Amino acid sequence: MDDLTQELDMTDDEIATDNRIEEATPLVDEALAATDRKAHNQEELSALRAEVARLQDSLREAASGAGRLAIKEFRRKAQAKPIMAAIAAGFLGFLYGITR
What we know:
The chain crosses the membrane at residues 82-99. With 100 residues, the protein is mostly helical. The protein has helices spanning 3-9, 12-16, 26-80, 82-99. Helix 3 packs across helix 4 (82-99). It is rod-shaped and about 90 Å long.
């Protein structure tokens, strides 16, 4: 008898105890491990995206605060020395004009 005929003649109990079913399947194991790694990587990627979004919000707030502070400081200095502020504004206007 050939192998195929023997397999067809086997009972359910004999099939269940057949060791060929429990052979190592390295490709399946590798595929399952890759799927697990992919799921883990997706979780890490989501966490990193959330962290980047949080950092962007913090940076926007800090930049906005720094801009307001710079404007406040400029106004304070311009009020303390109005002639210097006028000279600086004229110089900046001149530079802007010659670069156009």
